[in-house]
């Protein structure tokens, strides 16, 4: 690492994670006009693509029940392979929930004849096209599970499983936040799991609605994954219940599903649950928690300082650790557009690490963080960038880069045209219309005795 009048220059960079966020970071670093000595990207699986690489046997993995913090660890069945242990939360019948024109990176495009809501394989194909646009200065390290990342004497020591420790000046964390499931500790749940093995799961481990054919299924949660899974399963299940916080706020219901209140007690003896409003539901064969995930960085020695699982703390502009900006994060946000936002974040990271952009001092960054936290709130809301926050955030990062006259060279995220902003503004309405069509499609499939299939 060298210091000049602009900012510190970091020569050796490690990127943890080979999904859309890590790839954006790699490209941004490689596009810098000031060359880095080393750009090493580590991916623990045998292929790049992150969340969108659908591979492995999910039946070999089982969640900790309950799973109430970022330290909860999965259990593996005998014979589980590495691809099973590191499987993705993506499932068999999956399409995106945003239209492809607003998913794209800068100047890398989906085929114009793509489905408006691309299938998972189409997204992976698109990511592979993005990889082709990457300069050769990026070193991709597959099958490289990171055991530890620790700073010793101003140098980041990165330990890869079954390999020697490697040293870096800066580390970019892009490992995603769909790894450690949240399963609440509800009375009777632990006992249920002990007596009725493999009947409690989480959306991370969901694969296909056919796994629930002719079963009575309880889905906990009615956000994006809860809606999608319950809709798919209602095609072939004997009965589907969905537990929601407030039934009065349901705007679109599936008549194949019974909606119940929050579950406050589980009873394994008769496979029943009791809700907050006193309703009892009996004969449940399977419970699927669609309750989200914790932020988790198990390889980081500073994990307990950086996050409580709900929020990444002491972070400037959702990217840089305030005490030590040589560690940064990409795509911590929620309810946002991952690929475009990742490029904008990575554009700033690259300029900071090349020394072209100088960050404010620690006191100023801390003040900015505290103002942001007051404005948004602590915990999960701190990372919520629902429209129009995500687009405003991209423009803000772009303006920061512009203030130090380093916008013209290097990578930058995609231009937010009026057309793209309109598409983004319509996301909620479009998703409701898509769900309405899907529910009618599912009803017809069930009437005809057919298995689930996606809309055309």
From TrEMBL:
SUPFAM superfamilies: FAD/NAD(P)-binding domain (SSF51905). Its cofactor is FAD. It comes from the Eukaryota. Pfam families: FMO-like. InterPro entries: FAD/NAD-bd_sf, Flavin_mOase, Flavin_mOase-like, FMO-like. GO terms for molecular function: flavin adenine dinucleotide binding; N,N-dimethylaniline monooxygenase activity; NADP binding. Keywords: FAD, Flavoprotein, Monooxygenase, NADP, Oxidoreductase. Belongs to the FMO family. This is Flavin-containing monooxygenase. It comes from Candida verbasci.
């Amino acid at each position: 690492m060298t210091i000049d009048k602009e900012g510190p220059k970091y020569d050796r960079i490690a990127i943890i994670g080979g999904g859309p966020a890590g790839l954006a970071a790699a490209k941004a670093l490689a596009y810098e006009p000031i060359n880095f000595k080393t750009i090493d990207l580590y991916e623990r699986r045998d292929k790049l693509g992150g969340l969108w690489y659908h591979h492995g046997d999910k039946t070999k993995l089982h969640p900790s029940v309950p799973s109430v913090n970022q330290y909860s660890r999965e259990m593996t069945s005998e014979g589980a392979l590495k691809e099973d242990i590191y499987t993705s939360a993506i499932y068999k019948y999956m399409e995106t929930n945003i239209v492809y024109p607003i998913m794209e990176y800068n100047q890398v495009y989906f085929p114009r004849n793509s489905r408006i809501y691309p299938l998972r394989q189409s997204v992976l194909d698109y990511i592979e096209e993005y990889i082709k646009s990457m300069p050769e200065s990026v070193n991709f390290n597959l099958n490289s599970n990171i055991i530890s990342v620790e700073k010793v004497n101003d140098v980041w020591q990165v330990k890869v499983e079954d390999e020697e420790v490697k040293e870096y000046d800066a580390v970019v964390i892009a490992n995603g936040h769909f790894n450690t499931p949240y399963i609440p500790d509800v009375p009777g749940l632990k006992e249920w799991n002990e007596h009725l093995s493999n009947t409690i799961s989480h959306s991370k481990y969901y694969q296909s609605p056919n796994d629930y054919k002719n079963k009575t299924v309880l889905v906990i949660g009615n956000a994006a994954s809860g809606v999608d899974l319950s809709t798919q399963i209602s095609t072939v299940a004997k009965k589907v219940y969905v537990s929601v916080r407030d039934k009065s706020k349901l705007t679109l219901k599936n008549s194949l599903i019974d909606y119940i209140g929050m579950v406050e007690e589980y009873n394994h003896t008769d496979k029943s649950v009791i809700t907050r409003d006193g309703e009892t539901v009996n004969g449940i064969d399977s419970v699927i928690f669609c309750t989200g995930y914790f932020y988790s960085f198990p390889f980081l020695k500073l994990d307990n300082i950086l996050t409580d699982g709900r929020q990444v703390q002491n972070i400037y502009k959702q990217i840089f650790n305030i005490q030590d900006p040589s560690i940064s994060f990409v795509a911590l946000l929620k309810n946002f557009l991952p690929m475009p936002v990742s490029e904008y974040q990575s554009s700033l990271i690259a300029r900071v690490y090349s020394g072209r952009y100088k960050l404010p001092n620690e006191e100023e960054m801390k003040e900015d963080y505290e103002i942001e936290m007051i404005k948004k709130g602590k915990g999960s809301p701190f990372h919520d960038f629902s429209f129009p926050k995500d687009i405003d955030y991209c423009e803000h990062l772009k303006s920061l880069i512009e203030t130090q006259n380093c916008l013209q060279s290097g990578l930058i995220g995609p231009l937010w045209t009026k057309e793209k902003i309109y598409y983004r503004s319509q996301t909620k309405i479009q998703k409701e219309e898509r769900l309405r069509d899907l529910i009618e499609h599912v009803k017809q499939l069930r009437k005809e005795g057919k298995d689930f299939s996606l809309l055309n």
